[in-house]
């Protein structure tokens, strides 16, 4: 048996769910936003102002509300996944777009036409935002990190680390039991591993890179016997290992002074091969193309003077040739896919700057977790800032709101929502937004209000900046989810999902 919710009941429940989700998250927006206390069955209660963390933890006792919540959460979670920040801005925009959209539908405007017009508006909005974009200066990077972390000290620490490694994938955040936060830099090529050989151990080792699977130690006996006689270690990277080989390796390690470590190559298909090629150049090993039927020889082996093992990653010593690095740089410059470009940049960082490990400390587990989340936001914001910045405080959206003509209802719905982040930032600071907006309009949008300093500033001199990529992604995802929800007429709920009754007071 299934329950169907439709008509005015569905619209009411839709807005109830949106308000529930957004009301908790939007109070965190801006430099004077508030925190939210989250109680979880998995860990002790903790305090945060991280929008995506808050969104993930919003649930209702009502199954209908939960179904809507899961779809609405997608907007903020997708923003966080793509750019690591902007989740709260996405939800603030989503809530206003839903209100404006339903107002249009209640006045008999066709919802399918509305959705089409909203989607068609995205390229126009993007073009106007690009015209507002500025190149990111070193000062901007520092400000972006501080604003994203909502803490100047954390922002400065992340900025200093990022200056050295230039890539978020070359930074690891590790929770510790110490009060102080420390940073450690490691030179070498790092790989994430799910089941490390050991923790906090270093040793020298031969390295075998295998393009293919391995089923038994017999397949590598040609090189294994000489290594055993030398009492040296061997690290083997391959696509996968049979259970038989893993058991043989365990028995071998138990009996010998040296060890064999089996590691499955991260990633998949071509990406997995690219990692092997990086290590081939970095360690001077030669990939054994077992998949293509080539024979194993001693010449395939590389040697690492130092292999460092930590909790969830391993670091290989070595160095890359300038020719290989130049080739990789050229691929980065010519790559048209943002997804592939990120992978290329990650590989380049591993081959050149190594790894930065931030040991996050604090007075309690709650403070450590909260500090770590701030650091994650700052790291992602710095990565996104490479593509430019905008004047912050919601002003960039206010400016394009006045530059675009609302020639369709879909565009009108979106434009009517663009002032929501600006208003929310001021409301969270306990300020009236109307007189401040009038002052900004009087200056032809050349003035911004600095909430932290309680003063007006010229936009050419202000330190308040938003990351272009974050603002654009927040706007796109809010439009995408809002346009889908506004065209939803039926909700079909399986009987087993109905864990509670409909509360008319919601």
Shape: elongated
Average pLDDT over all residues: 87
What is the count of structural domains?
3
**How many helices does DSSP assign?**
18
Low-confidence stretches: 500-506
Q: Could you describe the largest sheet, including whether it forms a barrel?
A: 6 strands, mixed
CATH architecture of the largest domain: Orthogonal Bundle
Strand order of the largest sheet: 6-13-12-7-9-11
Helix content: 40-55%
What share of the residues does DSSP label as strand, in percent?
15-25%
User: In CATH, what is the class of the largest domain?
Assistant: Mainly Alpha
CATH superfamily of the largest domain: GroEL-like equatorial domain
CATH fold title of the largest domain: GROEL, domain 1
Distance between the termini: 24 Å
Backbone CA Rg: 27 Å
Structural class: alpha/beta
How many runs of DSSP E, i.e. beta strands? 19
Molecular structure report:
This protein has helices spanning 7-26, 51-56, 63-83, 87-106, 111-132, 138-149, 152-165, 221-230, 243-255, 269-283, 322-334, 338-352, 365-384, 395-403, 409-415, 420-428, 433-442, 468-486, and strands at 2-6, 36-38, 46-48, 171-175, 182-186, 189-192, 201-209, 213-214, 234-238, 240-241, 260-264, 302-309, 313-316, 355-360, 389-391, 447-450, 455-458, 465-467, 490-494. With 506 residues, it is of the alpha/beta class. It folds into three domains: 2-134 and 395-497, GroEL-like equatorial domain (GROEL, domain 1), CATH 1.10.560; 138-186 and 355-387, 2-Layer Sandwich (GROEL, domain 2); 189-319, GroEL. The strands form seven sheets. A six-stranded mixed sheet has the order 6-13-12-7-9-11. Strands 4-14-5 form a three-stranded mixed sheet, covered by helices on one side. Helix 1 (7-26) runs antiparallel to helix 4 (87-106). The longest helix has 22 residues, at 111-132. The radius of gyration is 27 Å and the shape is elongated.
